[in-house]
Amino acid sequence: MNAVEIQDLTYTYPGAAQPTLKHISLTIPQGDFLAVVGNNGCGKSTLCKVLNGLIPHFITGSYHGSTKIHGLDTLQTDVGALARKVGYVYQDFENQIVRPTVLDDASFPVYGGEILGIAGISGNGQKELLEAIAGLQPTESGASIEYYAPEASAPVQLIGKSPKAIREAGIHLSFVPEDRLGMGLVGSMGMTDNMMLKSYGKGHSPIVDRKAPHDLAETIKKELGVVTPDLNTPVSRLSGGNVQKVLVGRELAADPIVLMTAYAVRGLDINSTFTVYRLLGEQKKKLYAEYRKAKADMQEVTTIKANIDYLLGYSEPGRKKEQER
Fold first, then answer.
1. Phi, then psi, of 265 in degrees rounded to 5
2. Is the pLDDT of residue 262 over 90?
């Protein structure tokens, strides 16, 4: 008996004009390994949700064709029974594992216009470090995170400040967390409403301005190639890579002084990866120019976790090596 049998499967998300999966036929014999590759939004995650029954039992839409798991028709079998046959590790698999805090005695400076990459095995405290800087993680007594503004006479202590207090102190901080949908975006909202979350506290009118968030969503969709039926489609229905594009695009568009990102390009295809790195490089150049103009010792806490090879290319030694080649 084959492990998986798919016959002429076509699936379209609710409200979408085009199908995400179109006339898919696939057979996977018992014991085989199969890799499904493709650009963000091409349907990889959607196919997995078909296999474990989330589509169409929980995620509705237009479903045609036949999918069988060890002979069980997924349309006729409840999700509980399928779960005993199909294991599914989501793209944000780190968030399915509870880890203790392992960060201890971390000390380092980061300067204006600088990109710093933090390397290490996943779960070694990188997540907790970024959340502590962002005001989302409590720290032990004696901890200190100081922000030096360009022309300030004294640093601002971030320890003990909430994210709101950090904003009110004039520190424009953007944060791309590991938990994209749990902490970064609201899955039930579309792109436009998720853009509004970044600026909701700036308005002084009881009438909500949706034009600016809508325009920003359109820009991010175009520049980063976000694949979505429309701007009001809940982002939880998008592929993991497209969710990442929405989150990174929104945080970069805020024009931050301090930018922190955990796995900025996780789940992105190669073209989108280079686009994000280009945007990070442009933000770095802008901050460095402002740093030089201010002629001050701007010790901005800017922490970025990403691929070291690419980060080295943006560093001063990395560029000098490239010029020498």
1. -115, 20
2. no
Do residues 271 and 279 touch, judged by C-beta distance below 8 A? no
Q: Which residues pair with 29 in a beta bridge?
A: 2
Chain centroid to Cα 297, Å, comes to: 31
pLDDT in tens, 98-137: 455 456 677 888 877 778 887 777 777 788 888 888 888 8
60, 112, 110, 69: which is closest to 88 by C-alpha? Answer: 69
Kindly report the length of the chain. Answer: 325
Q: How high does pLDDT run on average in the chain?
A: 79
pTM: 0.63
For every residue of 90-157, DSSP letters joined together read -TTGGGGS-------S------TT---B--S-TTSSHHHHHHHHTT-S---TT---EE--TT-SSPEE
Taking the C-alpha atoms of residue 50 and residue 235, their distance in angstroms, rounded to an integer, is 18
Q: What are the pLDDT digits (tens) for 46-55?
A: 898 899 888 9
pLDDT at 259: 86
Q: Distance between CA atoms of 97 and 76, rounded to whole angstroms?
A: 31
Task: Select the highest-mean-pLDDT range: 104-108, 274-278, 285-289.
Answer: 274-278
Phi, psi of 127 (to 5 degrees): -60, -45
In contact, 299 and 163? CB cutoff 8 Å: no
- Most distant pair of Cα atoms in the chain: their distance: 74
The whole-angstrom separation of Cα 218 and Cα 204 is 24
> Which residue shows structure tokens 């290490």?
120
Report which of 26, 29, 64, 32 is spatially closest to residue 48, judged by C-alpha positions.
Answer: 26
Helix (H, G, I), strand (E, B) or coil at 263: coil
Question: In the numeric block, which tokens belong to residue 111?
Answer: 């300067």
Q: Which tokens go with 1?
A: 């008996």
